[in-house]
Protein 1
Amino acid sequence: MKFFSLVHLPNVSDRMGPMKAIIKVMKEQVNSFYLIQRLALYDIKSTNKNSYLGLAWELITPAIQLAVYWFVFGYIMKRADVNGVPFFHWLLAGMILWFFVNPALLHGSKSIYTRLRMIAKMSFPTSAIPSYVLLSKLYPHFFLLGIAICIFQLTGSPISIYYLQLPYFLFATVMLVFSINLITSTLSTIIRDVQMIVQSILKMLIYLSPILWISFDSPVFVQTIMKINPLYYLIEGYRAAFFNHNWYFIEQWEYTLYFWTLIFILLWVGSILHLKFRDHLIDYL
Amino acid sequence: MEKSVIVKNVAKRYKLYSKQSEKILDLVLPKSFGEEFYALRGLSFEAEKGDVIGFIGVNGSGKSTLSNIIAGIVPPTYGEVEVQGQTALIAVQSGLNNNLSGRENIELKCLMLGFTRNQIKELEPEIIDFADLGKFIDQPVKSYSSGMKSRLGFAISVTINPDVLVIDEALSVGDKAFAEKCLDKMNEFKEKGKTIFFISHSVGQMKQFCEKALWLEFGKVKEYGKIEEVMPKYESFLKEYKAMSKKEQKDFREKGAELQSNFSHESI
């Protein structure tokens, strides 16, 4: 028989090194993976339950957005091909990533405080909450990715060996979203304003990422500044896999190094914060 | 008798802030901001297996805080709680997902409690049978009445077979027939040697069902013992309290509030 003991230990994480905290959080993800993926499915079900078209909205919303952006930039402003890639393709490659990152960061940041009351006494760690919300946004992304690849295939950008780097960039995206969500979901439970900050940053982020504008058009120093944004790396990586036909993460190895250092720092901060506050998050509701 | 729940010197502090800025300063700076309020002030008691304990006390005496702490939902600020086995809390707001149907909620809830797919398949008919919601089981929970919600919550919680059951006012919204069904189920639990904590404003239900009573006053144990001994005292206290003038009642409450804000955990 299990013997639970709820002893108040103040700030266990203070005594924990960064590596230890990260490993602890990552282990929790692995151990509760079965649960995470099941809960993700219920989350998708629950969000689409009220509409008549249900799951179809996961496709309709991005399609409308994409059509509008293409109409404004591609049709009215008559954007030329980008390095021989039709503008629509080029836009689509960036947009599908955005269609995942945007809702994943938005819903991820409010994942804990909106669900904690419901799942306060459950047999899984709180760090799994942002993860299953992330996963519930990743499923539609797989779906969109599949459609986009079909479109590319049929309209003149066929599959190449460079597609092999796609799983890598997908993994990198998941890691980025996971580590940011770990921070924002914990903080927004304590200070609700964090949720507002995330929302406004996300509104800007689409314009600060090379989704609608062409990265190499601007002066070098502007490009360098824009590259601070890790989404830049991921979007360019996606495009390299689809059409640029180079191994982006090897050719831009300095950028790869920057990206993973950033992930490490975010994960570190997120794990320490989360472990420090998680036992008391319920008190902030 | 074997101990099943041991609560030792448990205190629960809440912070009352008069401004939002105090809240953030309290979080960031080491100095303490805001007014302290102790919902529980160093409370200790032990429960044995098979005990059915009723929590009694006026509003704000700490009954719900204590039940949340025993159920492991809220961590205590100071002190220790040891619980042998799995606990389940049944409250009116039993944490159901409003968008999902009753059936989906059963699956989700069991999943989160760590049951496997096969186990859930076995439990599901039993839960549905107990909740007795008819065709509403496949309707979204938001269309349920509060009684139906509490029935579903109760059915899930009792079917997963916990060792310690905490029931917080959950029976007061159900109708008489369902309350009787629940009491039967709880009697069954009692025979199996499970520990049950029961909070209800119905003194009748309390007397009918509980063996022991824990009387809480301003976050401390006022009296703990056999229900036949504690309940009459509580009832006469209630009578006395009701007979007091508005002013006296207010003084009584203020005295308590003062105790709760000036409590220091070193005194335990």
Note: The CA atoms of residues 134 and 174 of chain A lie 8 Å apart.
Protein 2
Amino acid sequence: MTMPAQPSLVKPALRRRAFLRSQMRNIAPFVTLIALVAFFWVASPSFATMDNVANILTQISVAGIMAVGLTFVILCAEIDLSFAAIANAAGIVVAYFTAQASYVNVHNIPLPGGVAIVLAIVASAILGLVNAFGLTVIGLPSFIMTLAMMQIAAGICALLVRGQIVYAVPDLVKELGAGSIGGVPWIVIVLAIFLLVGHIVLTYTRFGRYVYMVGGNREAAEYSGVNVNRVLAAVLVISAVCAGVAGMLGVAHFGSAQQNEFDGYLLDAIAAVVVGGTSLFGGRGGIGNTIIGLCVLGVLNNGLDHVQIDSFLKILIRGLILLAALIINVYAQNLRSGAVQEAE
Amino acid sequence: MIAPEESPGAGTRLRMESISKSFGGVTALRDVDFELGPGQIHGLVGENGAGKSTLMKIIAGVHTTYQGRMLVEGREVRFGSARDALDAGIGMVHQELSVVPYLTVAENVYLGKQPTRMGMIDWKTMEKGASAQLRNLGIDVNPRTIIGDLPIGLQQLIELARVLFSGARIIILDEPTSALSPPEVRKLFEVLEGVRQSGRSVIFISHFLDDILSISDMVTVFRNGRRIVTERKANIDKTWVIEQMIGKGHEDIEESYTGAIALSSEPTGTAVLSARDLCFGRAFSNVSFEARAGEVLGIYGFMGCGQIELSRVLFGKLTPNAGALAVNGSDVKLKNTAGARRAGIALVPESRRSMLFYQEPVFKNISISSLGRIAKLWLKPRIEKRISEEQAKDLNIRPPNVANLLGNLSGGNQQKVALAKWLTYRPGVLILSEPTRGMDVGAKDDVVKIVRKLRDEGMAIIVISAEPETVLALADRILVMKKGRIVHEFANETISKDGLLEVA
């Protein structure tokens, strides 16, 4: 009982610094976003237009829906490497159960659109459950389990389409993925709904609290009588289902389903979550951070197309930005634990 | 047996003169003299915090700043590191073994100095050498065995062998018998006999007075940072040693339970939690007891006697190999801690770190265990805060603002938050592991009051501790654990600390 009970005695300047340090992970991505927008605004006249804003939003929507589920996983201090492959599988499953044009050489099973959609979502949930089983029952690290699942889901895709490309998806999926209402693409609306629901679940429900507590101190959660394994299983299933929806809409968005269609999104979604400032060590961050991360990534990808730059150099630049974000992420964690220790 | 060492062991092997050591104002050693002769096994006893470990760490070069002189074989030394001590012929076998479990016996014996041939490890020489050296000590083991597959007792002997082969002439053994079965202890003593005959010196630290008295030549007792007495083994017995350790209350003002304490348990209370023949690995076996409503059951035992594992099994964190648990008369199988919570069993572990969320506000720490009752789906922060504020008031948590980050509270207040978590939940059985460890007197008093109040309200409470004072201050009935078994029960009788130590 050595702590003085009067916080007013602590110097305000010190408190302000401690606050800034603890908020580093939220401030840094925001500053990055503003800096990028300012840079491209000046560098390219075609960047800051309403059309382009709509472009950016559409471009981030598939990765964004995946990132919502991934945010849950990373908040628990776990990782999912299989969601892009699961998205691919869900997209192919929904196409597999839809009647294809006669020239598509796939022996598929046409079913009513609603059934095909349900089957695709169930398939992705099952793959998520398998991830959860490996993690919680067998005790594999999520990194290894989902790495294996990445291959398994890719294998399912390969078996279903056998190297072919399929085009047709149920009308509902087609509308949500490629259509728009009043000029706003449906897929952006779907992304907004996913982000909103994700945020509400994480912030206002008991399950959301458990996610943060399990990520913050897993041992303490266990000693508080929280069923840690059930929480971990749930986040992996959530991640898989989000990926499934993203995969279906992505197929409609791009107009076709094929092997390895979403491989690039693995890095994009992870980058969005981490660049946004959600801690890789769990317990800190949230959907708000993921939104900023998505914007950073979207602006960066889109903006690089608006300036004169070697297109091969872009890949390197993206890598460097991601590295910088990772450094800030780890650095912010250290600052924060430093701040807590100082206060102790 | 072992070849006798080169240097003629005349005079004193190790001599410590008026050693004092303090840690930031807290004195750990006051003016301690200590002497160790060649071919001597010197037993060191004293309660936790009496200063034994501090002295040993000075000898082994871990603590490098202290007052006083230290002479090894007549030459004054001042070690700058553990490496220096090793070079001077001082080796230590810690309670936590430092063997590499995935390597073979031979590799462990030669760790860090494997014989090589043309830059490659010379396996043949190494295995032959290890085998021969171990046989010298009377240890017959295949040098190619992976050491982790061997019983603990054998692993310990091999570590001892390594220390011997490294050329140590002074060997410090810290609690070597706590994890050993009786035959393993006998084997260790046989080996130590050989070590003694070779002229090397051994310092033997242990809480097990029987073990100390059966192997040592000399016994030194520590209390409150002072060396109280050194005596030949032949002149003393266990009762005398216990008396010296506790000091009959005439040294400092510190409260010591030397007087008789009357245990009064209520046999009328119903059994809330009953354990039947619980076994868990090597940690404990055939543990049976009942925790009754309105009673504080104390479980006392030295560190490493299996009481920590027992608390984990009772809370569903570890799964027992055999035996059964029943809550209110019906058998339960605990799959995890959530299952234990639902069955009405709660645990406050000995380390606060493992049950608190330092980066979260106090109220989230308090409400987490009861969240299922407060909120089915949607969180109700206002109710959480109200409940937490009540707890903060009841337990006198300072500062009382429950929106504060937990990390900003002092240690004693954090401990209260850990308790508040379960008080909000109201379990049928509350297990407290080392509830007063590291607390000042005021905070200890608070804990005693809280526990008494809960007991009077009809909760069954189990207090698990390696500190006799804690158990004596809180318990209505005491079970004594020793090397994984319950060896004694004190109920409805008058006991003292001596009596408790006598059976442990």
Note: Chain B touches chain A at residues 315, 317, 336-338, 340-342, 346-347, 349, 353-360, 364, 368-369, 371-372, 375-379, 398-399, 405, 407-410, 412-413, 421, 425, 440, 442-443 (CB under 8 Å).
